[in-house]
Amino acid sequence: MPANDDPINSSAGDFQRLKRALRTLSATNHALLRASNEKTLLNEICRVAVEEAGYIMACVAYKAHDAAKSIPLVAYAGFETGFWEQAAPSWDADSARGRGVAGTAILTGKPAIIRNVLADPNFAPFRELAIERGYRSVIGLPLKVEGDMIGVLCIYAPEPDAFDGDEVGLLGQTAEDLAYGIESLRLRLRNKEAEETIKRLAYFDSLTGLPNRTQLRERLEQGIAEMKQQRRPLALLHVRVSRFREINETLGHLEGDKFLQETASRLAKAAGETGTVARTGEDEFAILLPKRDAEFATRMARKILVTLYEPVELSGLMLDSRAAIGIALFPGHGTDPTALMRRASVALYQAEHSGSGIAVYTGTLDAESARRLALMGDLRHAVESNELLLYCQPKVHISSRRVCGAEALVRWQHPQHGLLNPAAFIKLAENTGQITPLTYWILDAALGQSYAWREAGLAQPLAINLSAHDLRDPRLLDRIGSSFATWGAQPDWIQFELTESTLMEDPVGALVTLARLKDLGVELFIDDFGTGYSSLAYLQKLPVDSIKIDQSFVGKMTAKEDSAVIVRSTIELAHNLGLQVVAEGVENEETWTRLATLGCDVAQGYCISMPIPAEDFKDWVDRSRWHARTC
User: Fold this and answer.
1) What does the pLDDT look like over 419-455, one tens digit per residue?
2) In 3-state terms, the chain is what percent helix, strand and coil (to 5)?
């Protein structure tokens, strides 16, 4: 009696086949847990199928969209290089080589099995290779990733009549698990690339490739700490080039960009390995020179002026450029980044009004400091005497084109200086410890305004910004609860916005405070997303509802591909995490349309409305009928 007719031998064979299929499935799941990249995962799956499970050969191949509809090999085990190329399988249904297990599995999306390669007519093109390598049965298992049939897992057995129902079921599960692993690794890779892009744009200027102001500040802070320890000086040069705006207006933005790129290149060459060159403004640059004194910094400044004076060719014209350079030094002019950067700017002003174009900070024109000192004394009085005004900027849901809330903003009606925007005093309040009383004022004003709106029949949330100081305030939650009680407020009256950089100052503490805020039932937003370089792992832990993409990316997304990539990636990431997305700085219809195409949820910006007094918001809503308007 033949061996396969012997019930005992047959039973033993079935058991061995199930055992190797189970080993393959188990090893695949272990490999999925350990895999760091797709190539490593595929190689490991093929290896375990041969070395641990006992199949004679295994391979993974992905379909190509070429004329031949080939299926190039990606990973394999158990056979020598060149075997797959000799077989040359295809996923062309009209080709004889498309009727093997690889092509059939891809075309049908189902396991393809040949249990006797010597007898099956569909295997004729591959029979000689099978005889040479000693396999008698083969299975092709389709790999479907993100809805697309990307390729096939092929497994070869030495005996005929392998791959019966139970074995096929287990190997089919193996292929499904492998496809899931591939999909997860690809998603992880895309997320990592998006995170790296966000981080790169947060640290570098996209036009010149130089470090931006954020990175300069960090390097300056690090340099000051190192120089303080070594008792060495440090110089900061603030450079502003002339004619940039003239070039932009006369020759266009493309030539203006070329001019800035050439300027950046010359500055980097002049500084060499000695210093760090950064772009800090539209036509402004900075050079950080550790271990350098005033004499060296002045020589460097002269060298830069000569370098930049050489003509630049733009649109066939040879245009010369001038520059002015201000110099500030640690420790003589300041012992922290803010002081040095400010005083280098003051020195730049001096340089622009001197004959040499170079100035070392002297302090005689530091009028800003005097004004800041005066404002420090006025700010607390302003809060107490109600010199502050509550403004708000509307937000609109993109798909419905309906108003869905507003961001609370503050203005200061100063007796001498007139109406001041937040830029004139918010940072001052943070630096002087007066941000907490200011936040409390905004909280009470926002809830009071929300109460008035609801009395008038308008129910829209107002979003309040919280600073890093606010998050560290032990009385914050009690104060919010007290204000809620005062106005009879409900959680949907207000929302809280926290900038990404604020969260990253104290990630652990911020997470605790956000959790307590979330317990109140309010919505939480991460503001200025993309500028604070938080990790995706940290973002997943935050009990937030929405993220706001920083206007520096949104405003440039129709002109700069890097910014468009950031916006698109951020929307995808946020939605994958179950978060809503608000785009700030939406200033025109083109940007609105692009955001709508990308699936962004909410827009805010001049396209909708400039900030308006909060008491006028209801009239604006009644008049605007925004859901029926275009920008």
Assistant:
1) 888 877 887 787 667 888 899 999 999 999 999 999 9
2) 50, 20, 30
